[in-house]
Amino acid sequence: MAKPEIIEMVKQILTKYLRKQKLRKTPERFRILERVYEEDGHFDVDTLYKKLKANGFMVSKATVYNTLELLLHAGLVRKHLFSPQTAFYEKKFFTGSHDHLIILDDEGQVKKIVEFCDPRIEAIRKDLEKHTGLSIENHDLYFYAIDQKR
Amino acid sequence: MAKPEIIEMVKQILTKYLRKQKLRKTPERFRILERVYEEDGHFDVDTLYKKLKANGFMVSKATVYNTLELLLHAGLVRKHLFSPQTAFYEKKFFTGSHDHLIILDDEGQVKKIVEFCDPRIEAIRKDLEKHTGLSIENHDLYFYAIDQKR
DNA sequence: ATATTTGCAAAGAGTTTGCATCATA
DNA sequence: TATGATGCAAACTCTTTGCAAATAT
């Protein structure tokens, strides 16, 4: 759960983004943003949708999809595809750049996700940019470990 | 396109794997394996399926899915989820461990994939293993760069 | 006022499943 | 010959789309 100051700050960022892109400041977009920043780890669209409903805020799932895509473009969420079929999201602003160690059970299901940060990734990024002449926007690094069920 | 010796070798690996797992040595499994090793880069299920049909080998798409999953468990292919909806595969044996720089166009579509290899990843892996006590099986690292359409 | 955003339901894409048939061991 | 594998089509799941109604600017 993000601190209230953080929530205020990301709301301001969204406001600026919407203004710049000439998009509308709708209550749905802000309620979804708040809800995203109340999440602690990774979540999928359906989970977020159900929590919004549980909190008495009726939005359609299509709007949740649209808004998450918008927040992605605004740089306020991160999107992960570590399991096929379902995309996972997490809040991005001020959580720092980090990578993921994904612990699977013996059936290949995600059991736990550990976050870590290693400066060597940044060094690799810079070298790659120098080598290719391209500007690298971001990266995803996933290590996979298998842990027996017990 | 893999050399004939490589193809022979992976067929032997598959044979051993099937024997060990008490699974059947079907022509479909071997034809799909061959076709996979004739692919040069990343491919999706539908592309592989169409190429098999174009080569006069009739298999159902379900079998292609099943077999790719089997080859994944046998360590003979690698699976990637860099775009939502569609899984991509690539041959794995003897191609060396490498990572991916994904170049997107301004609409976010995959334009080009550049492979690279950096020993620092291996160093991070070893440190993580030491730190967590887990055995890390593999990893996926994707850097993303955006290139204008033209 | 007007054009974007929403909600709903239906369509779409990729993947998985169920069941009868086939074929490997 | 007995069980695992295949083929086909239908089912499933997640996501996107189309259109009418609502609403922000």
Topology:
Two copies of one chain form a homodimer.
Chain A: H1 4-21, H2 27-38, E1 43-44, H3 45-54, H4 61-73, E2 77-80, E3 88-91, E4 99-104, E5 110-116, H5 119-132, E6 136-146
Parallel strand pairs in A: 4-6
Antiparallel strand pairs in A: 1-3, 2-3, 4-5
Helix pairs in contact in A: 1-2, 2-4, 3-4
The structure holds a DNA duplex (25 and 25 nucleotides).
Entry summary:
Chain A has 150 residues and is an alpha+beta fold.
Description of the structure:
- 2 copies of one chain form a homodimer.
- Chain A is an alpha+beta fold and 150 residues long.
- Chain A folds into 2 domains: 95 residues, Orthogonal Bundle (Arc Repressor Mutant, subunit A); 54 residues, 2-Layer Sandwich (Dna Ligase, domain 1), CATH 3.30.1490.
- The first copy, chain A, has 5 helices and 6 strands, in the order ααβααββββαβ.
- In chain A, the strands form 2 sheets. Chain A has a 3-stranded antiparallel β-sheet. In chain A, strands 5-4-6 form a 3-stranded mixed β-sheet, covered by helices on one side.
- Chain A is globular.
- At the A-B interface, helix 5 and strand 6 of A face helix 5 and strand 6 of B.
- Chain B binds a DNA duplex (25 and 25 nucleotides) through helix 4.
